[in-house]
Amino acid sequence: MSARILVAATEPGIRLPQYSHPGDAGADISTRVDVTLAPGERATVPTGLRIALPEGFAAFVHPRSGLAARHGITVVNAPGTVDAGYRGEIAVTLLNTDAAAPVTLRRGDRIAQLVIQRVETADFVEVEELPDSVRGDGGFGSTGTS
Predict the structure, then answer these.
(1) 46 contacts 32 by C-beta, under 8 angstroms
(2) Rounded to two decimals, what is the model's pTM?
């Protein structure tokens, strides 16, 4: 099953989101500009894409594993969230985690993946006490180190 997502480009020549293989969860999105990231540098990179998601859906921007493995490039706020009501240009905040090498990305290079998902909204109800659970309030590291 697929959702119908309307896409508008901010200028001619923008690559639309594209799945690389059948069954992929993430559609590749690309940069609309050339950018060089020095070691440790981050930049918010425009994609030239605007989308209209149906109500009840959101798009999540994930890092590309190849960029991470080969160049240390990640998405700072991964996954970034695109809400159904947002109509502006999608931009991706990239970070070069490499300690020594700059990375240059050219217009049209794939920089992230867009995952479309159904989302639920919640009614938040304030209570005095929460019901017990097996885990309780155990947080970070509460299950041990191995």
Answers:
(1) yes
(2) 0.89
- Tell me what percent of the chain is helix, strand and coil, each rounded to the nearest 5: 5, 35, 60
Q: How far is CA 34 from CA 48, 51, 95, 117, in A?
A: 12, 22, 15, 30
The superfamily (CATH) of domain 6-118 is Deoxyuridine triphosphatase (dUTPase) (2.70.40.10)
- 1, 51, 71 from 23: Cα distances, Å: 11, 21, 26
Q: pLDDT for 3-54, tens place per residue?
A: 899 999 999 999 999 999 999 999 999 999 999 999 999 999 999 999 999 9
- What's the number of CA atoms in the CB half-sphere (13 Å) around residue 70? 7
Averaged pLDDT of the chain = 95
